[in-house]
From TrEMBL:
PANTHER family: UTP--GLUCOSE-1-PHOSPHATE URIDYLYLTRANSFERASE. GO terms for biological process: UDP-alpha-D-glucose metabolic process. The gene is galU. It catalyses: alpha-D-glucose 1-phosphate + UTP + H(+) = UDP-alpha-D-glucose + diphosphate. The keyword Repeat does not apply. Gene3D superfamilies: Spore Coat Polysaccharide Biosynthesis Protein SpsA, Chain A. Belongs to the UDPGP type 2 family. This is UTP--glucose-1-phosphate uridylyltransferase. Keywords: Nucleotidyltransferase, Transferase. Its EC number is 2.7.7.9. It comes from Candidatus Acidiferrum panamense. One of its GO terms (molecular function) is UTP:glucose-1-phosphate uridylyltransferase activity. Pfam families: NTP_transferase. Residues 17-283 form the Nucleotidyl transferase domain.
Amino acid sequence: MAETTQGKSAAGRKVRKAVLPAAGLGTRFLPATKAQPKEMLTVVDKPQIQYVVEECAVSGIEHIIIVTGKGKNAIEDHFDYSPTLERFLEERGKIEQAAMVRKISDMVQVSYTRQKEPLGLGHAVLVARDLVGDEPFAVLLGDVLIPGPNPATKQLIDVYAATGVGAIAVEEVPKERTHLYGVIDGESAPQPPFGARLLRIRDVVEKPKPENAPSNLAITGRYVLPPQIFDCLARTKPGAGNEIQLTDALRILAQEDGLWAYIYDGASYDAGDKLGFLKATVEIALQNPEFGGEFREYLKGLNF
């Protein structure tokens, strides 16, 4: 994947925007999601989607586009200003809490657009086309949490800035679990400063059986993509369930313009199912400087 003239030109373009698909119905979490978005389910002390927005802000993203659907008003309310609540807290001397509420609204510019029908992740990204425009952008899945001082999104932005080619985050998974993920077929293409973590994608396979998986490197839910991905999505035919799969468009992009896989530095938590959500809650709680130590001692004292 030699760098093209287009790639050299794109490398100078800052990644300013991110798309957060949040239109799903969250059926795996019923009845909790009957009247609230799954993205607003709390992991320790913050809604899932706030972790993702904070990752964007720390990564230098200036404008977030959240793709919503029916019943997602709570997301908009969460990132909107709340002068009544702020005033209530300030009047009662809870200055730190008031500042915390205000910070949520001030983190980054947020726009919203609707995916009117559940036509897949690829379609959700395509819905954001007009708001993204002709520039590179990040995509973050709201039920994948990657907290830590070195955001996965920032790592991908660094790859794009250096090469002008799109990049997706991958991580090693047990071979028997490849059927749960999109899995890449890649070849090592080390270059400084990324080293062996950088791979050239030859193909992407959606949820392969273990015996058919081209590798054990699974897509983690973080992407930095050039605007050409929109043309790839527009040409992607609906698959199972009449949905447009982002994976299919990534295959086209990899073949036509090139695409990197990057084994990111960090740990992810899949909060998209109940067991993953519980694991995320426990592990993120253990990292909390306020009560993590006490919580660890509590867990040690449990009799199973």
